[in-house]
């Protein structure tokens, strides 16, 4: 495995038990290469010492074998690592527990699961606090769960792969940006001392449609299970598609003489966050232990060029941060670090992101992170977090896992993606489409051209038909709404056709609920599970609706700041007559539906972390069997609202009559949410000096605050701040001729929510 970015993250995790006992020239030379992290050279030196040095004593031999095994491990040479660790376990009885762990991992990576199970068991006896020993011992008793859905997948080796490492693809403008150590052009060939391969850079292929080549590198699940390898499956066919294999350097601004690694983009693809060696102004930096750590950097796309490269504020010279992944709404960044206080080697962390401002990193917790290494996160549009790990039970090496997040927590644990996405080797860097049915991932499985390769995957559909009928007549019901719930969370809303049918592709190992809604009928639902697999290519479920006088209440939860649907909101309907409650959690469309008994007043409450709780009360329904539609808006911490009608006369800061009407709207919001705290942000146009404008804007913000205080809002709920001309919104900066109307657009006041309850 030639994945240097992963290697660097783990570079500081050296064997604590290794001591230097260099009693011969050969051993002294080998230890020097090992200490310099030059593992290719160290392997040669240790092998030569063990083969030729006749005067070596037992302690030297033991020490050399331990370091040789560790060097092969770092080079991902699992077969030689297995050989060396096997010799150690056979010869010595006083080995540290980690030798048994490394031996177990090497055996699993070579597909020897029964032997690996025995070593994991021994490791568990020696290191009882590390759950990996027990987990893998039990897991390898029955391997079938890793192959449950394997027949549904088709894997293809991509023609963009080179003879060197290619990995960690990311979607970008219809193409793929990826990491590669392919040979560079130019006279000087730089190589990484660790394993004598070129440094990593970012490359780009502009069109993913060109990567779907019939017959090129197609690998079926049976082959991955140990069948016969063909020319196409070995990846050799990819070389025949030279017209498609061309990939260009992504950015000469971002690529440097050091490593650039995995990256992520905001939804508009105008901001990139990427991994790079610790370097400043072209000079490499090191930690106190002499290791070059990884850092995260951001850049902005302006006129087609990446500019304004900045370090992220939570970087640190003493530990690595890397492998970034934005959440679908850009509100969070997931990343990997070996910072102190984690659960294992490398952990996944999350940090809040808001308009260029970063929060404080938070560990994703023990549901995600283990005593091993978690890395390469990807946040899919459907809300699932994909990542790779060698600490959760898998087929060997790094496996890809998926976790459904609820309020930032993997509330149902993690799920192994299974074969053929996973193999006995390293599988990582997975990205998917919004439905999770196709995408790309990286692997160093033997079917690749050489070392790490990028593969595409496509999952065939397991179709489920949902049929809605009138319970009395058996007539199919057209235009009935069907709400799909996946593991208890609302998903999309579908509509039945003339035959009363709608359908979807179901995922394996998933609990579904389908709720059918139609005016004049009582809401009804059925549950469906794919925890057990059916051999049928098409499945059916039926929902029967009874005629009813109940009222159906439906609506959409939106965020007030941009009026977009809010996902992950807990919506509760309370029947104020009998005090019963119903609860749903919104999905991507923000929708909810409830069945309400006639002549009953009810209350709807919408709750989400870091948002103000919204309550709406409704009286008794006026008529029976109706559908009531309503939408609720949520105010969230960090939301900024422009008060569009609050303008000021030139050089003035008193509240005009038209501005007072807009402030009365803010007043109503603050009274509705008595725990809400806001910042009043005032801005000026660019005329006059910076100092004058700061003072003027501060006076304007204070005037707005005084207005609200005078009408009963406690001053401790309000903050006033002037920004002067620092945030011009229309380009009317110093030296630019603008009309009075254009200048007035910049003389504005906003309010930002800083706290809610």
From TrEMBL:
Residues 1-22 form the signal peptide. Residues 635-757 form the OmpA-like domain. CDD domains: OmpA_C-like. Coiled coil: none annotated. The keyword Cytoplasm does not apply. This is Outer membrane protein OmpA. GO terms for cellular component: cell outer membrane. It holds the Pfam family OmpA. It is found in: Cell outer membrane. The lineage of its organism: Bacteria, Pseudomonadati, Bacteroidota, Cytophagia, Cytophagales. Keywords: Cell outer membrane, Membrane, Signal. InterPro entries: 6-blade_b-propeller_TolB-like (IPR011042), Bact_OuterMem_StrucFunc (IPR050330), OMP_bac (IPR006664), OmpA-like (IPR006665), OmpA-like_sf (IPR036737), TPR-like_helical_dom_sf (IPR011990), WD40 (IPR011659).
């Amino acid at each position: 495995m030639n994945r240097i970015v992963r290697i660097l993250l783990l570079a500081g995790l050296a064997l604590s038990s290794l001591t230097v006992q260099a009693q011969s020239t050969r051993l002294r030379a080998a230890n020097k290469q090992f200490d310099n992290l030059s593992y290719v050279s160290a392997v040669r030196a240790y092998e030569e010492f063990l083969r030729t040095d006749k005067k070596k004593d037992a302690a030297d031999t033991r020490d050399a074998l331990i370091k040789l095994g560790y060097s092969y491990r770092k080079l991902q040479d699992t077969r030689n690592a297995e050989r060396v660790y096997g010799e150690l376990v056979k010869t010595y009885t006083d080995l540290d527990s980690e030798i048994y762990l490394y031996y177990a991992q090497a055996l699993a990576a070579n597909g020897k699961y029964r032997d690996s199970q025995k070593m994991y068991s021994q490791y568990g006896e020696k290191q009882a606090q590390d759950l990996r020993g027990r987990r893998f011992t039990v897991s390898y008793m029955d391997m079938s769960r890793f192959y449950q859905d394997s027949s549904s997948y088709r894997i293809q080796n991509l023609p963009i792969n080179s003879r060197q490492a290619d990995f960690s693809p990311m979607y970008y403008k219809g193409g793929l940006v990826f990491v590669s150590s392919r040979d560079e052009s130019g006279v000087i060939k730089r190589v990484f001392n660790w394993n004598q391969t070129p440094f990593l850079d970012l490359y780009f292929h502009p069109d993913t449609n060109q990567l779907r080549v019939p017959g090129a590198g197609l690998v079926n699940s049976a082959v991955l299970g140990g069948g016969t390898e063909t020319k196409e499956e070995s990846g050799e066919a990819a070389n025949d598609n030279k017209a498609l294999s061309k990939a260009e350097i992504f950015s000469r601004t971002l690529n440097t003489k050091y490593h650039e690694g995995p990256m992520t983009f905001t939804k508009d693809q105008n901001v990139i966050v990427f991994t790079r060696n610790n370097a400043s102004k072209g000079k490499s930096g090191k930690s106190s232990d002499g290791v070059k750590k990884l850092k995260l950097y951001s850049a902005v796309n302006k006129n087609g060029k990446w500019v304004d490269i900045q370090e992220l504020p939570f970087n640190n010279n003493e530990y690595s941060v890397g492998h970034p992944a934005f959440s679908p709404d850009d509100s969070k960044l997931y990343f990997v670090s070996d910072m102190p206080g984690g659960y294992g080697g490398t952990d996944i962390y999350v940090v809040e992101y808001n308009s260029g401002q970063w929060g404080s990193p938070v560990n994703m917790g023990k549901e995600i992170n283990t005593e091993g290494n978690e890395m390469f996160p990807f946040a899919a549009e459907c809300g699932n977090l994909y990542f790779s790990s060698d600490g959760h039970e898998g087929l060997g090496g790094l496996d890809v896992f998926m976790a459904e997040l609820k309020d930032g927590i993997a509330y149902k644990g993690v799920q192994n993606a299974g074969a053929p996405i996973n193999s006995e080797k390293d599988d990582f860097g997975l990205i998917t489409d919004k439905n999770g049915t196709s995408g790309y991932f990286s692997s160093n499985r033997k079917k690749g051209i050489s070392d790490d390769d990028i593969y595409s995957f496509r999952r065939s559909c397991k179709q489920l038909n949902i049929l809605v009928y009138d319970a009395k007549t058996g007539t199919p019901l057209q235009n009935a709404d069907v709400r799909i719930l996946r593991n208890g969370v609302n998903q999309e809303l579908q509509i039945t056709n003339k035959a009363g049918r709608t359908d979807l592709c179901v995922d394996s190992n998933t609990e579904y609920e389908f709720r059918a809604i139609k005016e004049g009928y009582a809401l009804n639902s059925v549950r469906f599970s794919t925890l057990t697999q059916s051999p049928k290519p098409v499945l059916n479920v039926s929902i029967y609706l009874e005629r009813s006088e109940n009222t159906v209440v439906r609506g959409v939860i939106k965020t007030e700041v941009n009026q977009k649907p809010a996902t992950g909101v807990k919506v509760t309907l309370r029947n104020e007559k009998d005090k019963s409650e119903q609860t749903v959690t919104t999905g991507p469309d923000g929708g909810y539906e409830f069945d309400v008994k006639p002549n009953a007043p009810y209350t709807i409450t919408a709750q989400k972390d870091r948002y103000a709780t919204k309550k709406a009360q409704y009286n008794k329904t006026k008529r029976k069997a109706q559908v009531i539609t309503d939408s609720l808006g949520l105010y969230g911490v960090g939301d900024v609202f422009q008060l569009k009608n609050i303008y000021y006369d030139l050089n003035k800061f008193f509240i005009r009559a038209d501005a007072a009407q807009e402030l009365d709207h803010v007043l109503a919001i603050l009274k509705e949410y008595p725990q809400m705290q806001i910042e009043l942000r005032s801005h000026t146009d660019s005329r006059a000096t910076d100092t004058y404008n700061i003072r003027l804007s501060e006076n304007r913000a204070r005037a707005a605050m005084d207005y609200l205080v005078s009408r009963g809002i406690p001053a401790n709920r309000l903050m006033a701040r002037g920004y002067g001309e620092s945030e011009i919104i229309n380009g009317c900066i110093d030296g630019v001729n603008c009309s009075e109307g254009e200048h007035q657009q910049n003389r504005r006041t906003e309010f930002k929510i800083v706290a809610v309850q």
